[in-house]
Design brief:
The chain is an alpha+beta fold. Helices cover 49% and strands 24% of the residues. The protein is built from 5 helices and 5 strands, in the order H-H-H-H-H-E-E-E-E-E.
Length: 152
């Protein structure tokens, strides 16, 4: 530990740069979205120590904390503006199926059959009169891997 304190006294730039690189590597490996801004803050502190700003160890730690907190809060606001939560997830294909037209590929028997929609075949359930194979239906809802459909 004494060697680390001595090294920081001589070259604080390398300590902060190493911390920033480690945080950035962990962020790149795990995509947490929480370690990007501390990595950037460590890089800023590294640059400030390299140009000779005399903060001392505790001043550097305080600046790192303030920069981390401020950049994290500002990034959350920016992300919420750019990517509001009321938009559907583009990776959730099931959520986009509701309201789409599907083609019956296997006739409904006792209210159950198979339909083709969005490039895939799905199990489907219908209430009432079922259209024959080849006709189209509308997806009303999704229950796991089962589509609830209605005649179009």
């Amino acid at each position: 530990m004494d060697a680390l304190i001595e090294f920081h006294g001589a070259q604080p730039f390398w300590i902060w740069l190493a911390l920033g690189v480690i945080l950035l590597a962990v962020e790149a490996a795990f995509s947490t979205e929480w370690l990007l801004w501390p990595a950037v803050a460590a890089g800023v502190v590294a640059v400030l120590t390299a140009i000779g700003l005399p903060l001392g160890f505790w001043g550097e730690v305080a600046l790192f904390g303030v920069l981390t907190g401020a950049s994290t809060l500002l990034s959350r606001r920016l992300i919420q503006k750019v990517n509001p939560s009321d938009f559907p997830d583009i990776n959730a294909r099931e959520g986009r199926l509701v309201g789409q037209r599907a083609q019956v590929v296997q006739a409904f028997v006792d209210g159950r059959g198979r339909v083709f929609v969005s490039g895939a075949e799905w199990s489907a359930e219908i209430e009432g009169a079922a259209p024959p194979a080849g006709e189209s239906v509308i997806v009303e809802s999704i229950d796991g891997a089962l589509l609830k459909v209605r005649a179009s």
